[in-house]
Structures are given as C-alpha cells and as structure tokens.
Amino acid sequence: MTLLCMPDADDTATLPAAAGSTFSAGIDMNPSGAPFGLRGMCLWAGAPALTTTQLPNGQTMVYDLQVATDAAFTTPVTQAAAVIAQTGAGGVGSAGATGKAEIAPQSSYRFARLKATGSASIGDCSALLATLHARE
C-alpha cells in the first residue's frame, strides 16, 4: 500500500494593531484531495516575543487554530482554542511560545488557519508575524 504524504506547509498571520483578531491566509492540508495518511496531521503554531509596549501587564494575545472544509473559511471550526496564550506581566511583555494541535486521520477539514486575538489595551503588534506549520 502506498501512503500519500503532504509536504510540510507554512503560513503566517500578521498580529493585530489594536484589540481584535487577525487571521492567516490558510493552509490547504490536502492539495491532492486524497485521504490523510494513517497518522493524521499536526499543526504547530508559533507566537513571537512581545514587548511591554505591545503587550502591557495584564493584556493578552490568544492564538486559536481553526479548520474548515472550504478555503474561504465560510464556517470555521476551532480545532484548538488558546493553543497559545500570552499575558503581559512584570513590565516585560511576554516571551515567544509554541503550541500544537492534531487533526484526526480522515478528517473532513481540508483547510487550517491561525487566529490571533488581542485584548482591549494591547499596543500595535502589526509588525510581527505568528506562524502556522502543518505536517503529516
């Protein structure tokens, strides 16, 4: 039996400039249209370090992994809520972080994206990128 393996894929999301959410463009986790391999799919998220100006004490930047059956994300489903959560503390912002979620084999969700949501009083983080990496 031959297993079809998807090559690694990467995506980025520009972080919000103020309170609210931004999204990455999305990754087609199955460009060939064939069923996922026996191992399913792993999604890795990466968040950059944020300064105290960008993430003041008590403010948060939360990252969710979303999946959908279509590239437009008409009806997105949160696969992993708060896969990364950064909170400003100690007057130093927050260190960079990573998180992981898995999608089961034969999942009907073909597309994945990263959602970054900043709380009410974050600073401008729009010069920074969060990353999403898909690997079978």
Order of helices and strands: EEEEEEEEE
Indicate the mean pLDDT.
89
Q: What does the radius of gyration come to? A: 16 Å
Q: Report the biggest beta sheet as strand number plus sense, adding barrel if it closes.
A: 5 strands, antiparallel
CATH C-level class is Mainly Beta
- CATH topology value: Jelly Rolls
Oligomer: single chain
CATH architecture: Sandwich
Count of folded domains: 1
Query: What is the number of E strands?
Result: 9
Low-confidence stretches: 1-5
Termini gap? 17 Å
General form: elongated
The portion of residues forming beta strands comes to 35-45%
Pairing-aware structural class of the strands and helices? mainly beta
- The helix count comes to 0
Task: Summarize the structure in words.
With 136 residues, this protein is mainly beta. The chain has one domain (9-135): Jelly Rolls, CATH 2.60.120.760. Helices cover 0% and strands 45% of the residues. The chain is built from no helices and nine strands. The chain has strands spanning 9-14, 20-23, 27-28, 41-47, 60-68, 77-87, 97-103, 111-118, 129-135. Strands 2, 3, 5, 6 and 8 form a five-stranded antiparallel sheet that branches. Strand 5 and strand 6 form a beta hairpin. The model is unreliable at 1-5 (pLDDT under 50).
